[in-house]
Every structure is written in C-alpha cells, then in structure tokens.
Amino acid sequence: MEADFDPEDKYSWYFGMLSRERTNNILLEQESGVFLVRESKTMPGDFVLCVKEEQKVSHYIINRISAGGSTRFKIGDKEFNDIPSLLNFYKTHYLDTTTLIRPAPRARLLCKYDFAGKDPEDLPFKRGDVIEVISEDEDEWWTARNSNGQVGQIPVRYTQVVSQLNLESTQPPPPVSTNTQVQYELPDVRPSPMNESHRPAPSLLKSSLPLQVSQPVVPKCVPVTLPAKAIVILQRIPSAYDRRQLRLEVGEIVTVLKMNLNGQWEGSANGKEGIFPFTHIRFLTTEELRNLNT
Questions:
Q1: How many other CB atoms sit within 10 Å of the CB of residue 249?
Q2: pLDDT tens string for the chain (294 positions)?
Q3: Strand, helix or coil at 250?
Q4: 231 near 258, Cβ under 8 Å?
Q5: How far is it, in rounded angstroms, from Cα 146 to Cα 109?
Q6: Rounded distance, CA 249 to CA 152, Å?
Q7: CA 70: distance to chain centroid?
C-alpha cells in the first residue's frame, strides 16, 4: 500500500505524551503501517515511533542526540536531521515488516459551549463546532485543531467526545465544507469554572513538540467558498517519490479545491493538481483578489 501522509505536517502524526497502553489501544485494530509519534515517558526528551506491524504494535525509540551545536535524531543505527526526514525515509524503507502508510486517526470533540479564549495560545470555538485532539497535555487542558487548521489549547470540560477513535475505519477525516453547518442537540447550561492552576504553561506546551519541526504559520480564519485563491507563504519542495504532493514557491497563487481535516489540503498550481500542507499558504484578501483580476 502506498504511503498517504506528509511528514512535514507534524499535527498529523505527533500525539504528545501518550502511554504505551493507550498507544496500543489506538493502533492494535488498525492495518499494518498505521503509526504515530509520542514522547518517551521513560527517556525524557526522546520520542517513540509506534507502528502497527502484522499482529503487534512496535515501539521504536528515537534518541535525540546533541553534538557540536546541532541536534540529530537516531533510530536503530540510522541518524536523521529531523523527525520529518526520518518518517519520509520509512515511507519507502521497511522497519520490521512494514513501511509507514498513514498516521493514526484522532479523537474528535464536540464543543458544548462558546470559548472565546483569553491567551494567545488558546483556540477559540463556538458551541456546536467539532475539533480534533492533537495531544492531551493535562487533565483539563488539551491541544486541538479546528476545521480551519488553527491549533491551540482548549478547556476539556467545554467539550465532549463525539466519536472515539474509529479503530475500524481506514478512511481519512471527511473534507471541510464551507457551506455546511453541523447541528447537534446540546444542553443549554453553563460550564463550571475552569481550574487555571492545572493549565500547562505556554513554554512547556511548545517545548513538548519535536525539535526541528517548526510551529506553522496558521492561516487566518476567514470565510471562504471553494474553490478559492491563496498565496504561497512558505516554500515547499516535496519528496520526489510522492508525485501527489505539490511543489510550492513563495508568491505563487494556488487554487484551493478542498480543505481536509488532516491538514493536507487539495489544490492546483501551475497546471498541476495535488496536495499540500495548509501551513504553507494563506487565502487572498478581497483587495488582493481584485488586484489579481485587474
């Protein structure tokens, strides 16, 4: 089976501080090649590549090695400059019995109340929104991503799980429709006060992400109707082995055709259609569109 993920999109494969038992529960019923990357609990600062292989879940330690002012990541006897390079290598090279095919599915949450947020790292949402869990940082504060690709902290008690990880599904999350609103029956009550003392510090949250994987520039949340024009803000030269990935040059205009919840959007540029991480583009403003058409 052909690999179906972008190693540069860390929010598709990074699951934070998961236990080994929880990881096994997520991966055991998946097909071979489904994987995730978690932080090591026994070796702080290191990571673990967890992969479903035949009838088992394998846990491969990724050691972070610092030498001469640079950091490298070692798995077995192989070293890489960063984790995306490591994952890209195992798209086409076997670990034990499989290559990497796609990241594990994530839990999705229904937002029960409005949350405006008060800190820059918060992820605001409205009652009825559906978001996906990136990492469970603390009991009361998790990191999540909304349908526009924005990532931030959310208060857990303002949400409820609408679908546990669908362990029988092999399909990616459905595309985001800009013209559809999700309707749910929710109780008309207010949440109890949040416990700010258990909130993870912003610096701790950011430092928990794998080194050498930069924080993305998240597109502003603007109303769009697809197809929509966007401009490339980060250069992207994809692997030569994955012909579905679009090459992007800063300043190019991309037509966005579909916005998928996994962060891999579909679009066209220079006469070619393909997929690309949402973090590399931003939608054009009304004024920019007007100038483009004149």
A1: 12
A2: 678 899 988 889 999 888 999 999 999 989 999 999 999 988 888 999 999 998 899 999 999 998 888 899 999 999 999 999 999 999 999 999 999 999 999 888 999 999 998 888 899 999 999 999 998 888 889 999 998 888 899 999 999 987 543 333 333 344 433 333 334 444 444 555 555 555 554 433 444 445 444 344 344 444 578 999 999 888 887 766 667 888 888 889 999 999 876 667 899 998 899 988 887 888 888 888 888 876
A3: coil
A4: no
A5: 10
A6: 27
A7: 26
54, with CB counted inside 10 A (0-12, 13-18, 19+), is exposed
Q: What is the CA radius of gyration of the chain?
A: 19
Q: What amino acid occupies position 53?
A: E
Q: What is the C-alpha separation between 201 and 101, in angstroms, rounded?
A: 34
Residue identified by tokens 């999109």 is 9
Would you put residue 149 in left (φ > 0), alpha (ψ -120 to 50) or beta?
left
Structure-block tokens of residue 143 = 């990191």
| Token representation of residue 165 | 């990880």
Q: How far is CA 223 from CA 144, 150, 178, in A?
A: 20, 14, 8
User: For residues 189 and 28, what is the distance between their CA atoms, to the nearest angstrom?
Assistant: 38
**CA distance linking residue 149 with residue 99, whole number of Å:** 27
- The contacts found for 286-292 with CB under 8 angstroms, 24 or more apart, are 288/231, 289/229, 292/229, 292/253
Overall pTM > 0.70: no
- Secondary structure class of 288 (helix, strand, coil): helix
